[in-house]
Amino acid sequence: MIRLTKIEKDYPNGSAALRGIDLRIEDGEFVFLVGPSGSGKSTIIKLITAEIAPTAGRIMVNGYNLNTIRPRQVPGMRRTLGVIFQDFRLIEKKTVTQNLVFAMRAAGAAPKEIKARIPYVLELVDLTEKANRLPSQLSGGEQQRVAIARALVNNPQMIIADEPTGNLDPELSLEIMMLLEKINELGTTMLVVTHEDSLVDHFSKRVVKISQGLIVSDGTGGYYDYDDYEEE
Q1: Distance separating the N- and C-terminal Cα atoms of the chain
Q2: How far apart are CA 195 and CA 172, in angstroms?
Q3: What is the arrangement of strands in the sheet containing 189-193, beginning at the earlier edge strand?
Q4: Which DSSP category does 163 fall into?
Q5: Checking DSSP bridges between strand 158-162 and strand 189-193, what pairing results, if any?
Q6: Alpha carbon of 232 to those of 18, 137, 211, 226, 228: distances in Å?
Q7: What pTM value is reported for the model?
Q8: Whole-Å CA distances, 39 to 15, 19, 36, 94, 215
Q9: Tell me: the pLDDT tens digits for 56-66?
């Protein structure tokens, strides 16, 4: 569950990244966050993950009040989130399995839990046969599926996918988005930041559109055009 209430964010250079944002994401939802470059999408993600603090307003993330959260509580809050990046960010010298083991050990998982969880997640992302490959031995789509597995391996309540298909061709992009939809159907809340309107239009999901630090629409499905929201 995510609650952003009257959120404002000003950066030291004087720019107003967000101007009174109200956003609610319920457990189990699949939400696309869309908008042109500089609209405030990345700022929202950084606020949710507690990388930055708001100038004004209140943020709740999976039961944590980020306005009053203590530094020692931040790692626990972040373990409720899985984050997928455009550039994969895999450890190149570790195999697929070793990348996942590393993520689970970093979160404090017990060996028995690691042994049980990793085969399940690899099967879910269809990488069982690639478990002992290095990232360099995988295609771009396969590397992104490893990144998805890593985000999922600690069983987070919510996954944030930040431009997860930005480095992939259209066919692979659709494949990755369908995998995220499958994971969502298994109960994980999904927030996908993307600029790919054709992908958004392919799925009948909730679409939150942001421009110039404001939410300009919030609804389900339908084609959108960034040109309508570009800054003059």
Answers
A1: 35
A2: 16
A3: 81-84, 158-162, 189-193, 30-34, 206-211, 214-220
A4: S
A5: parallel
A6: 17, 45, 11, 12, 10
A7: 0.90
A8: 11, 11, 6, 36, 9
A9: 999 999 999 99
